[in-house]
Automatic annotation (TrEMBL):
Source species of the chain: Nocardia acididurans
The name this protein goes by in its record: TetR/AcrR family transcriptional regulator
DNA-binding region listed in the record: 34-53
Pfam family, one: TetR_N
Key words of the record: DNA-binding, Repressor, Transcription, Transcription regulation
Domain (HTH tetR-type) ranges: 11-71
Gene3D superfamilies linked to this entry: Tetracycline Repressor, domain 2
Amino acid sequence: MAKRGPYGKGIERREQILEAALRTIAERGFLSTSVAELAEAVGLSQSGLLHYFGSKEELFVAVLRKRDEVDAAAMAAEYSRPESLLEIVRRNIEVPGLVELFTHMQAAAADPRHPAHEYMHEHYRTSGAAFAELLRDMQRSGDLPAHVDPGQMATVFLALTDGLQSRWLIDPTIDMAAHLRLAWDRFTAEP
């Protein structure tokens, strides 16, 4: 077996850090998790951990990217149709710390100089395109009315989802899935 070398080991270590950060933030919350705790969870110093990412903000952006990979894999393997979005929202209820992280980074991304700016831009472009394509597939199969504009609907639903998640962090009694289902029914109703 060939040695993986320092580059391969660095990639593996980075993945270990991201997996530990996903777990820790999901369990404890973003605001209750320090870089020192994340470093300790993987047996590194703070500076050793940040060596793999450059800064605390870039670490958190990498955590969000990793979470997107996990969501994309789950959608491809388990979900289809608009239920995909509802299932992600239902799963997010189980990991409020990651919702909290996303919400904080989303607000910080308004500043083009913040490391989350480019991530959020790409996140919305990619997720919007994927959801719009799912909607086009539904139109081709006759499961979605022709009057619905898939690109517009994808933008509206991603914004609605983000807004509901922000509200849910403040008031956990909000049934995000029920609100999304209501919006879906209204948006797809024949004019």
